[in-house]
Amino acid sequence: MGLIILGTIGFKFLPGLYRAEPLSWLDACFTSTSAVCVTGLSVVDIAKVFTFWGQAFLLLLIQLGGLGMLSFASLIILALGGRISLRQDACGIIQTDSTPSIDRRKLLRDIFRFTMLFELAGAVALYFAFAPRLGWTEAIWPAIFHSVSAFCNAGFSTFSDSLSGFQTAPEILFIVAGLIVAGSLGFLAHEELWTMFRSRRQRAAFRLSLQTRLVLVTSACLILVGWGFYIVFEWDYTLRTLNSLDKIANALFMSITARTAGFNSVDYGQVSDSSLLLTLLLMTIGGSPGSTAGGIKTTTFAVIGLVAWSRIQGLETTTCWGRSIPDSTTSRAIGLVVIMVGVLIVGIFVLTIASPILSDGLIDQMFEATSAINTVGLSTGITTQLTTSGRIVIIMLMFFGRIGMLTMAAALTLPRSTARGFRYSYEDVVVG
What we know:
single chain, mainly alpha, 15 helices, 2 strands, globular
């Protein structure tokens, strides 16, 4: 909240940020919230409204928001478990003598180290990809901006049409997609994969935790399934003018960016209804815990799927890869989804009241609200059409999506002592 307020004040009073008229207070708050919450929705054209210094200030808010969320999420996980769960000997993941426990200072240092490493590598790769098209000097700033924006899963772009102008440049789409995936996996997965790499080099025994395995497998499955569906839905629709390689590259990019980032290589106002529905589902799932991505998270989605599969098999315990998932975790996953869906429905309902006249009505409002609460940033093009009250609703949804889900997860995790010392008698109800 403090960072959003500072960003709003900065957009109003810092000199040299605008090419023309400065933003109003509401639009400054909207832009600041979208940047700090790494969402990517914007009521103005970033390329046309902001100067280099305006874009640099926007990028600073994105970086601080992304790093702040990574640190905040990881420290909450650390506080809840005492130590990072994937290092706990009690979970039987790895032996205590093979990897030392992580203290808070090392945790934060590693977060900054991984972030800077990915963003630097991405900026260099994007520079050489942009340079033949934009020029060797002009490519420097777009490369830096898009690298940070992609890794932080923000979705802001220095180009008016996002990455639609690079539909026929698969190398650029692949680099941005790689940064998005790296940012959405989460620091816990990065740390454990790095520890596994070091252990393998030292020929030490190491076993990936169930957490990281679920993150990797679920993310890969969602990318592949979404990729296949987008190919089917858009091959002869929005991608019909492209060659086969570019169609495949753009469909893959759509699958990756839909869950968390908000960059677009196609106009989502022109895609098929099937693709819009698929995008809504992918946006709701989002990225992984301990990342800059929003949504209910890949592990929550995986746990609910495992609960359903276990119940179909008649099993009382939810299991995966030879491990049992605690009932408290499955209950927490279900609770998070129920709360998230409830808040989203209320948000959509309020948005229909706040901004009743829009291009295509309900589907656009559903898409906008879902994108905001899951901090994705994709839009069918109605963001600039939102009324004053509609923009306030989107601001609240972006803030809740960035902070609310993590806060609820922590609240559902923290143990509560009871003064009753008893429980009420059971009485069953019919469900289904």
